[in-house]
Design brief:
By secondary structure, the protein is of the alpha+beta class. 48% of the residues are buried. The chain is globular, with a radius of gyration of 22 Å. Helix content is 37%, strand content 16%. Strand 5 and strand 6 form a beta hairpin. The strands form six sheets. A six-stranded antiparallel sheet has the order 4-5-6-1-8-13. The chain has a single domain, classed as Creatine Kinase, Chain A, domain 2 (2-Layer Sandwich). The protein is built from 13 helices and 18 strands.
Length: 505
């Protein structure tokens, strides 16, 4: 039986200081986060009124699921312990990752919760920009972009994470995930003007479906910044390693359309559940997955056949319709318990069907749900009004402006995108954790006992209970520590000593 699909998203935001020709992205990212932590109450604090720091004790980004050490040129990302790295009371992590501010949502028990906390992360970004403005010289403004490319050949990530059964053979994960990741671009792509491949101009690729596809060069591997693989092999479960693995997915775009985010994580959760339960057809493989990834991104018709091993072909739409049919049969027999329950599960299937049908018959009909379609409609309107072609530099500027996180500047805010989550709920989620995972325990402890928390990470919290030695409370089971599990215990504990005593008993 498939394990519950606990899910999270890590988003690296593009950053720029407008009004300055001399700025450093690492310093700007640090200023942004510190400004938010200093001005807002959602950053948990210790007794010295400093943000509670991330605990790096369990960080092992070099562990490889293939159970061998990576080659010299396949280096894992460096763990940057010296940069700003804070834990928020909603259970999220807010930190500087290389040259970008990054927000990792708390662990969520279903796709709809992921959308809620992803929207909360956007709102945290907006509040951060407002707080940073007060610290910058007159005429300067720090701006965030929820995108994945600087249009100069550099990409930054939006990573997804899924809880999987440790006993599932990794080869099956690779086969099933690759089949889905290559084709799901048709609804997860956020759109991009032109191409960043060397020698490819606007005539060959005037506009494409995704921002990330062209930056992938390998089928399977450990890297996340160079020679990016379609399936990442990082084996860092942040949970009981005997029972679970965390599939670290680096191949998706950052989405502003909430339905696109919902489909991205919802369909993937269903696909991984099917693989675990042996209910997915793993007999077909792309002849060249990396080439297929690029090809799907470049094909706005969604009709170009993709070569399969053995000589057959399939379109991305056909592959997704086939996966939808398999998911409908699977859930009819097994139900939706492992993807968050009936309501969310049926919503995934209904939205999946609606969007695929719309893309097949009239892509503009799903412009309110799919970023690349919404953006293209805006750009097409500009091209008509100004009689310009895809090589016009103004289109690249508008492309970037779609992702501008300033509410009064964002083109996405004017694109008529449908919302899945209530803004008031998202505002509450900026400071309150989800109730259905261990993030609830983390967030409540930070909120209630922040002055006695030394550090925290995904799978443990370290408390300072006065004269006693520091106490680390492990949280190796992502499905425990929920409100149902520890809510009453936390409510009835007035001190850390009482909490630790109750936990011990």
């Amino acid at each position: 039986m498939a394990v519950p699909k606990i899910i999270g998203i890590e988003t690296e935001y593009g950053i720029m200081v407008r009004g300055s020709n001399d700025w450093n992205p690492v310093s700007a990212s640090s200023l942004l986060i510190n400004a938010y932590l200093g001005a807002d109450g959602s950053g948990a604090r210790n007794e010295k009124s400093a943000p509670i720091a991330w605990d790096f004790v369990d960080e092992t980004p070099g562990a490889d699921a293939r159970e061998f050490l990576p080659l010299e040129f396949a280096l894992p990302p460096e763990v940057e312990t010296h940069l700003v790295n804070a834990v928020l009371t909603n259970g999220a992590r807010y930190y500087v990752d290389h040259a970008h501010p990054e927000i990792s949502t708390p662990e969520c028990a279903d796709a709809l919760s992921v959308v809620l906390f992803d929207r909360a992360a956007e709102m945290i970004g907006v509040k951060s920009m407002e707080a940073a403005r007060e610290l910058l010289p007159p005429g300067q403004e720090l701006v965030l972009y929820k995108d994945n490319s600087d249009r100069k050949g550099n990409a930054y990530g939006t990573h997804e994470n899924y809880l999987l059964d440790r006993n599932l053979p990794f080869g099956q994960i690779v086969t099933g995930a690759t089949w889905h990741f290559v084709s799901r671009q048709i609804f997860t792509g956020s759109g991009k003007v032109g191409s960043e491949l060397p020698g490819v101009g606007a005539q060959q690729v005037p506009y494409q479906i995704t921002q990330r596809a062209e930056h992938f060069e390998e089928e399977v591997g450990l890297e996340t910044t160079l020679k990016r693989p379609i399936v990442n092999t990082r084996d860092e479960p942040h949970a009981d390693s005997q029972r679970y693995r965390r599939l670290h997915v680096i191949v998706g775009d950052a989405n502003i359309a909430q339905y696109a985010t919902f489909l991205k994580v919802g369909t993937s959760a269903l696909v991984f559940a099917m693989i675990e339960d042996g209910a997915m057809n793993l007999d077909r493989e792309y002849d060249d997955p990396v080439r297929a990834l690029h090809q799907v991104s470049h094909d706005l018709t969604l009709a170009r056949p993709i070569a399969l091993k053995g000589g057959r072909t399939i379109t991305a739409l056909e592959a997704q319709f086939d996966l939808l049919e398999q998911a409908e049969k699977y859930t009819a027999q097994r139900g939706f318990d492992n993807v968050g329950g009936d309501a969310v599960g049926r919503m995934i299937l209904d939205t999946w069907s609606q969007v695929l049908t719309g893309l097949e018959t009239d892509p503009d009909s799903v412009a309110s749900k799919v970023d690349w379609v919404a953006k293209k409609r805006l750009l097409d309107g500009f091209r008509e009004r100004h009689d310009c072609d895809w090589g016009d530099s103004r289109l690249r500027a508008l492309d970037l402006q779609y992702h501008d996180m300033r509410p009064d500047k964002s083109l996405a805010a004017r694109a008529g995108l449908d919302r899945l989550v209530n803004e008031a709920d998202a505002q509450e989620a900026m400071t309150k954790p989800p109730e259905g995972t261990r993030a609830y325990f983390r967030g409540r402890c930070l909120e209630k006992f922040g002055d006695q928390v030394v550090a925290a990470n995904w799978d443990s919290i370290v408390f300072d209970n006065g004269d006693e030695p520091l106490r680390r409370v492990p949280m190796m089971e992502p499905t425990r520590g929920t409100r149902a599990h520890v809510g009453t215990l936390l409510d009835e504990s007035d001190t850390v000593a009482q909490l630790l005593e109750k936990l011990g008993s």
